[in-house]
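Hi everyone, sorry if this is the wrong subforum. Our group has a chain we'd like a structural model of before ordering constructs, and none of us has done structure prediction before. Sequence below.
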Amino acid sequence: MAKCGKYICAQLKRVLKVFPTIIVTTLLLLLSMALLMWVVFEKNNSSEKKQMVQIGLTGDLEGSYLGIGIQTIQNLDSSKFAISFVDMTEEEAKEQLMQGKISAYVIVPDGFVESVTSGENLPITYVTSTGATGVGSMVMNELVDTISKLVVESQNAIYGTQSFMLENGMRDIYWDATDELYLRIVNFILGRTQVYELETLGVAENLSFIGYYVCGILVLFLLLWGIVCSPLFVKRSEALPKLLKARGQGACSQVLGEYVAYVALMLGTLLFIFILLAVAIPIAGVSPAEWEGEGISRLFLFLLQMIPVTMLISAMQFLIYEVVHGMVGSVFTQFLLALSMGYLSGCFYPISFFPQSIQALSGWLPSGAAVQYAGKCLRSVSASGECLIMAGYWICFLALAVTVRRHKIKNT
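Answer:
Right subforum, don't worry. Here is the predicted structure as tokens:
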């Protein structure tokens, strides 16, 4: 044990010497990951389903009950966050529809309000582009159908009630009852969000878009980070393991000493990155929804929770460097495995993007288990299953590394 401790200290000193160089290279990799996240977030924010649907309104709406009603709905109704009504002339509406600036426009005929109050429904013309299949167009088609039914059925209820009261001699409560029914219908329409419960499922595993990609990009970064450390492994002397064995340092002791130093290097680098994030996140004002209200303490806790992930990925990378010889071969293997495993684990696209067979496979991959574990840590839920999978891979990787080292000692 004393010899193993000395060897670990020697490896830690060796790692400490290259730490500044590793940090510089890591920063370049970190900038690449930050650029990747920025592209992903910009694409998500600019997607059609994130944009408010613009609808043109043509007709004389100023001062009319219809104009007041539309303005009230825009201020009070929940649909104001998805649909925006813009007053314009019919010529302007046609031009903006052709240019794609609005999804559709509505032509309100003169005397529309009077026709509704008298029981005659003058048709409102709804105009959209031919063959429109976008999210905005589909939403508006559903909305037009819904509004049409609401108007007709509301009229049926009001006029039916009025006819019933007249036929049964209820003239004394005729207007009060009509007003009360109007208010009940309006209250029901505007308060429709109270009749259902909204549950936001997120991108995957109930994570927000930002939270999911924080986990995915972090795991991808750790997978690629092994390339940064290639000079630390490929320059090792092939005769050194046999020499250490002759001095009483067995294969298991050698692997343990070098692996502990490598994990320490990865954790030190990760700590440095999290310190940068702790400074940058408050300045940028952007953080996963799962961190809101907790700030730096939640970030530090997440760092501690990522220790099993770093131990797993570092063990896998250590095994690759133990098996593959030479700078080109080891770097290419690390890069190929990082991209392929990152892709299948949902680091580039949400895992729900893939077929069910790939989704089932992903959870059993080392990187897939790491992404799912990070996501559950972010949501503060149990990740015992992922921990068992990662522990199993970790033991296998280190056992294989010891086996390969023993083979090298016997055959070099």
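For your construct planning: Residues 158 and 179 are 10 Å apart (CA to CA). The two ends are 26 Å apart (CA to CA).
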